[in-house]
Structure formats: C-alpha cells, structure tokens
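Long-time lurker. I teach an intro course on protein structure, and each term I like to show students one example going from raw sequence to a predicted 3D structure in token notation. This year I'd like something fresh instead of my usual example. Would anyone be willing to generate the tokens for the chain below so I can use it in lecture? Attribution to the forum is fine with me.
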Amino acid sequence: MGPMARKRQIKISPSIIKAVIVLLVIGIVLIGMYFFVMNAFLNSDIFKVKMIKIEPALNFIQYRDIGAIRGKSIFKVNLKEIQANLTAKYPQMAEIRIIKEYPDQISIEAKKRLPFAQIMVRNKVVVLDQKGVVLSESLKADDRLPFIVGMKVSYVRTGLPLRGPQMACALDILRYYRIEKALTAFPLTSINVANVSEVFLTLNNNLVIKVDKDNVEQKIKLLGFMLSRGDLELSQIKYIDLRFKEPILGKNDVLNKKGT
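-- Reply from a regular --
Happy to contribute to a lecture. Here you go:
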C-alpha cells in the first residue's frame, strides 16, 4: 500500500439508525409524559391549599396578608416569602414558623411578643418587648409599663431591637424584677440607666432603689425580701442602695425635719 492509502469508511446499518431514532422518539415521549403527569399531579385539586391554620394568639393577622395562598398548589407556596412578609408587618410575632401539612393545609405558628417596657424617642412613646424589640410607637404612655430613661436613642424601627450596654442593663434588671413575686405589690414606674454603675429604680410609691449592672438577680431578690418583711416604714425611706455589701437606707429629709 502506498502512503496515500484510502481511509476506511465505516458503514452504519440502516436498521441501527432506525433503532436509534425509535429510542429517541420513545425517550422524548416518556419525558413528555413524565412532565405531563407531574404537572397534573402537582396542580391537582388534592394539593391545592384549602385551609390556613393560625394559632389563636395570632388572631391579629389579617386575612389579606395570607389569603392569596388559598387555592394555590401547596408545592408552589413560598414559605420564606410568607415568613418575611409577616415578620416585617407584625413585629409582635417572634420565631415564626410556616409549615406545609400535606396535602392541603398551611399552619402558621409563632410566639407573641408582649409589651415589656417603654421609652421616649423624639416625643413618641416606643413600646419594647423583653428583648428590646420595638413593637409600636404612640403618643400615649401605658401606665402598666415602666419607662426606661437616661439613654439617648435617635432612631427606632418597628420590628428591630434597641441595643447597647444601657439597654441590656435595663432589660436585665426589669426581667429579674418582673419574676420576683415579692415585688408584685411594688410596680416599677421607671428605670434610669444613664450610669450603669448607679441605676435608679423608681417604684410607684416614689421609693428609689439604687443598683448596678453586677449581680442583678441577687440584688433584686434581696430587695424582694426587704420589702416583703413588712418591718420597714417605707414612708420614711427615700431610697435603698443595694450596691454595697450591706443595704443603705436613705431617710426622707422632709419627714426628718418635721419630726425635729
């Protein structure tokens, strides 16, 4: 053979070509049938959302915020989008969970944020939960909630928390005060955290309690013990200072002068 030998040609049998074409057609048909069946399955009335179950504590949720998912395929419901929308509109909700319960139900679960304290910001009363999350802004104060004073806040946004060492100190003290049963009869009206080394708690009887950011739980328990004994003439006491090893009682100067 010479250097310019002819290349060998490979001949494909017509029967093989025909078999390949048949297989391709069958494959396309099967894929089409698969997508048709899946589409029919996913959009079946069986899987269309018929019920939206909401915890009774969340009855403030408006139907228009969730009603659009009714009648929609449960497979096409975007849980993250619903959760983001509800979180933005209802800051009083915490730990929101949107759950698909097949075949046709959506459940909405969450913890309700409860009003815990209030603070004045730009001449408005801002209500906070126990984590400092802003729940609402109003022109009217709530007499049932203590005011946090002594800290500068220039900007608030509903649904977002107020942070900082002063806020953390105030919330920490208020939490321990709230759970101390012996102090139930002595509601707080305000807590001044301008200086976290000398925090002023004002009770509804105008008695002032001085604490600091350290060992808060112990100090609040001691206060509860002192006020529950019933042997203190509270009308003669101006303040109780709990920052030292032994409590210091400050006498009411006005009463002392009257007695002299």
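Some talking points for your students: The mean pLDDT is 87. The first strand starts at residue 51 and ends at 54.
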